[in-house]
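Q: I'm writing up a methods section and want to include an example of the input and output format. Could you take the sequence below and give the corresponding predicted structure tokens, formatted cleanly so I can copy it straight into the document?
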Amino acid sequence: MTFRPRALAGLALAAVAALGLSACGGSSANQSSQDPNTLVVYNAQHETLTKEWIDQFTAETGIKVDYRQGDDSEMSNQIIQEGANSPADVFLTENSPAMTQVENAGLFADIDAATAAQVPAQYRPSTNKWTGIAARSTVFVYNKDKVSEAQLPKSLLDLQNPEWKGRWAASPSGADFQAIVSALLETKGEDATKAWLAGMKENAKAYKGNVTAMKAVNTGEIDGAVIYHYYYYGDQAKTGENSNKVGLHYFKNQDPGAFVSISGGGVLKSSKHQEQAQAFLKFITGKKGQEVLQKGTSFEYAVGSDVPSNEKLVPLADLQAPAVDPAKLNSKKVTELMTQAGLL
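A: Here is the clean output for your methods example:
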């Protein structure tokens, strides 16, 4: 099978090019021209979700917020490159490995205790250098006309077996999938991860993006795919054209395939607006911020302030996810292993 290679130079180029990423509200990408009274968020979360958080936070506090949009690795590499000179006050991600990367570079301030208290321990790192702000569950989507429930894999590890050759897909170049592999590495170790990645190289088909992979499942081009749950629910809430023939399979049983990925938020140590930046994170993880997840159309899980998730979702407690400390997810090692396996 052929996977689209991910140019290793792309990360470095993205880091340099990120200076040119647009900032909301017409502010410049240069710190010298940034309004000193405005927070800057480097945002790798879904733009519409963060925009809703920002709008509600500003309406409640009067604090203005600009954001720069990119993906997890772009933003984390940009922050590390900028170091103490970064104009960013807050960093938000879709997946936690990018947060750990910035944390390991020593660039986060401690999270306020009041904010940490709003988020249960399983949804934030043991270090408390950042916090969970939302979550997403790994799922196996399958074409209901081609795969019966009895034929579904019992474990994520089953997908390396010969019976799944040419029958499943993923988007290996994306941060979403690499977070799942990070959890596999943490729960099963390097040898098992190498074996699984070798099986993936042999068995799986690569797509660019989770929606594309799900669409291929829906049309019957491929039997199944490993993605996150919210792509299905988001499509169903619209036309359903990319998911009407798709079923969702939750691995459960503390399987690596039951991994729940934590979206993170952290305050940069170099921020000149520490109080306001901490207030923003406290708002996101507070009742009003988490109700944006509960009532909105992102279909990500709420993790803070005892706010229930969207009623359409399988409850977090029922997912039987493996216990994984987000602070231990190693994106650098995963990239190395996936590159060695020929997946990147």
